[in-house]
Specification:
Layout lengths: L8 E5 L6 H17 L3 E6 L6 H10 L3 E3 L10 E5 L18 E4 L12 E4 L6 H12 L5 H14 L9 H10 L5 H8 L5 H13 L1 E3 L2 E8 L4 H10 L7 E8 L2 E8 L6 H9 L4 E4 L3 E7 L5 H18 L8 E2 H12 L1
Parallel strand pairs: 1-2, 1-4, 2-3, 4-5, 5-6, 8-9
Antiparallel strand pairs: 7-8, 7-13, 9-10, 10-12, 11-12
The structure holds manganese (II) ion.
């Protein structure tokens, strides 16, 4: 409240390609700013909301997300970052601009400490859980669409509590559940997709290779960056896989997504190793994302960098190149051997 005091306009910045947790957190901060102060908020991101589920969520919330190019931070009294941090590499706020508010659940970054208000809880499965607590403590009623969004944010970031969920996330979920719209939750989670989505999934699976407990695939150029992490989630469902790596190219960036089902894993640390000095990245124990700047038309360079990332991935996880096989053909070969 003290940060928002005497402020009129608030810019809430999410990741470039906001996920449900970021959308839920931003919508909650907007509601808090409106209830506790008299602040007009603008939601912005450097990219766009692309995944069908996330677009359905925004539509239900009645929220518009602006492009950062149309919302220069200097036009606002106050700037907030949610579900990301200054200098994280996945948001479009200039690292030289010190935000007033940072609320996140990724490992804390040095620039974050400069913010007037920062609350970074690494152990939480979702930023949405933190905002549920704020709203409860502040006694601000949570409208049904917002309760639904926060709930979906928690479900989505914790993969339905299958990864990195703590008691705080469960408590937030239970508090939100009675006032959420269950029918809408189902509709958002099963949002209809364009047919191109199936072509992308088919190509991703056809190209996927596996060795030991590792699986990886390179999607090449993608229309929507969200598909990179979405395919990583899908590949991790393979019962013989513990580590999934997915690459894709979008807007002059080689995007990298890692998922792990190993409870003792540190996907964030692995991601730092994969990108090294080539780009930026980070994450949690079970999920991580990274990006390497490239000239997307320089296919030779992109291929070389992708090979480097894949080679580091296999080496670090002790997978042997001699074990490499196409994911789908590997299945067929096993079946043939059994006959
Ligand atoms: Mn999150």
């Amino acid at each position: 409240m003290s940060v928002l005091k005497d402020k009129r306009t608030l810019l809430i910045v999410m990741q470039d390609f906001p996920d449900p947790d970021a959308i839920g957190a931003a919508a909650a901060l907007r509601e808090l700013a409106r209830s506790l102060g008299d602040v007009t908020t603008t939601l912005a991101c450097g990219g766009f909301v692309s995944r069908a589920e996330n677009r359905a969520l925004l539509k239900y919330l009645g929220l518009n997300v602006q492009s950062m190019t149309n919302t220069p931070p200097q036009n606002f009294d106050c700037i907030a970052l949610v579900d990301t941090q200054p200098g994280a590499g996945n948001n479009a706020l200039d690292p030289l601009v010190v935000p007033d508010i940072v609320v996140d659940h990724h490992p804390i970054r040095p620039l974050t400490r400069k913010a007037a208000f920062f609350d970074v809880r690494k152990r939480y499965g979702a930023t949405s859980s933190i905002f549920q607590e704020y709203m409860q403590c502040a006694g601000v009623p949570i409208p049904v669409p917002l309760a639904t969004a926060l709930l979906y944010g928690i479900r989505s970031d914790t993969a339905d509590f299958g990864r990195e969920a703590t008691q705080a996330d469960i408590n937030a979920f239970l508090a939100l559940y009675p006032s959420s719209n269950k029918r809408m939750l189902g509709r958002i989670a099963m949002a209809r997709v364009p047919r191109a989505y199936f072509r992308t999934i088919a190509a991703a699976l056809t190209r996927a290779q596996s060795a030991g407990e590792c699986v990886f695939t390179n999607l090449g150029k993608v229309d929507s960056p969200d598909i990179v992490s979405e395919v990583a989630d899908l590949l991790l469902r393979d019962e013989e896989t513990t580590w999934a790596l997915v690459l894709g190219v979008h807007c002059d960036e080689l995007l990298i997504s890692v998922r792990s089902s190993d409870v003792s894993a540190d996907a964030g640390k692995l991601m730092h190793h994969l990108v090294g000095k080539l780009g930026s990245g980070g994450g949690h124990t079970a999920m991580a994302g990274g990006q390497i700047p490239v000239d997307e038309n320089d296919t030779a360079l992109v291929d070389t960098l992708a090979d480097t990332v894949i080679r580091r991935f296999l080496k670090k996880l002790g997978a042997r190149r001699s074990d490499l096989h196409m994911l789908l053909e590997g299945r067929a070969a096993t079946a043939a051997a059994a006959e």
